[in-house]
Specification:
Elements: E1 14-16, E2 19-21, H1 26-32, E3 40-45, E4 48-53, H2 60-65, H3 69-72
Antiparallel strand pairs: 1-2, 3-4
């Protein structure tokens, strides 16, 4: 079993526009498995902030982009007509 990689750093909270920000360096982002655009959930309580990556539900566009005609294409039931379902 592979050991979980961890990393502890000390940094500062800085002003960013009208808000505050913490900048994640490459090492922290790499250990956390996040990149620009990764959706996250933020939990805050007195003296503690937890940021967790959340799995994003795929959009219709994502699903259509992943469609592979060679794998998913073709007739669902490639059988000859057997009754009155044939319309002239």
């Amino acid at each position: 079993m592979m050991a979980m990689q961890t990393l502890d750093i000390n940094t500062n909270i800085n002003q960013w526009g009208n808000g505050l920000a913490v900048r994640l360096n490459k090492a922290v982002a790499g250990v956390a498995g996040v990149a620009e655009g990764t959706p996250v959930r933020i939990h805050a309580e007195r003296g503690r902030i937890v940021i967790e990556a959340v799995e994003r539900r795929p959009t219709l566009e994502d699903m259509l982009d992943s469609f592979d005609p060679a794998r998913h294409g073709g007739e669902a039931m490639a059988l000859s007509p057997v009754g009155a379902e044939v319309i002239d």
